[in-house]
Amino acid sequence: MGAESAKRTYLVVVDDSDEARVALRFAARRAAKTDGRLEVLGLLEPQDFVQFGGVQAAIEEERRARIEGIVSSSIGEILDEAGVEANIVLQAGEPSRTLREYLVGREDVSALVLGAASSGNPGPLVGSFCGNDSGKLPVPVMLIPGSMSDERLEQLS
To answer: Is residue 1 part of a domain?
Structure first.
């Protein structure tokens, strides 16, 4: 097993929320400090079916472009700051099931890093993987509070 394959991979699910950016910043700093890697997952939730195939395809492409834009804008500055590279992956499907399936057989992933909203509902993935499905994942979950300051992130990562 080579040194490259032995690196820890931190998987972060990113959307356009503040808590996702905090989780990404934590994971990037953690990867930098442990000589690890970062994988950024953008999830495309399924949409209601549109009767006309061309319209459905256009809607799907628009959603994919929007998620790609969110992921790209979220990671650029953070990765430059942390000095790590990221593998960006987009997956379509119901978020909890898609993420669970994505992790099957991924022994290179050391931790799933999720951001929790600073108030109210913590988010559907946090609710799922830190609640009823908490024992069903093949990796530990790192839950990062969305209200955490950069200084505290630096200290803890």
So the answer is: no
